[in-house]
Input
Amino acid sequence: MLKILFEQYIAAGSSGDLTKLRGLANHKTSRIRKRVAENPNCSIEILYQLSRDDSSEVRIAAALNRSVSLEILEALCKDQDPDVRFAIASDNYAPCQILTFFSEDENPYVRNRAAKTIQRLAKNGKRMSLSPSFNK
Output
């Protein structure tokens, strides 16, 4: 049993086969679904599905995947779990509109993390990415 889980875990993180990833995205084990969400070969459709997962760790992994769409990211910015919002607020690749959105978050840790991320990016001279629109 452990060998099978290990093989599925490896496949979830390294496979480029979308059919295999679709199947693993429905796995009963959240760690496997999280690994799929982390996979850079993951399609937008699979990321959309995983962004609605019951596990906050899976939703965080979907949010931090470089292939995530702005639409998915915007939805996750309104996630009820502050850990999801905190992770996005910590992301150096989050669009500036999203980081600015978090400056008014109800959770003080999320607000503070977004401010620190903005400061860190400004200090390092990194250009924050701009998205065309973001609706609160």
The CA atoms of residues 56 and 83 lie 7 Å apart. The mean pLDDT is 90. The radius of gyration is 16 Å.
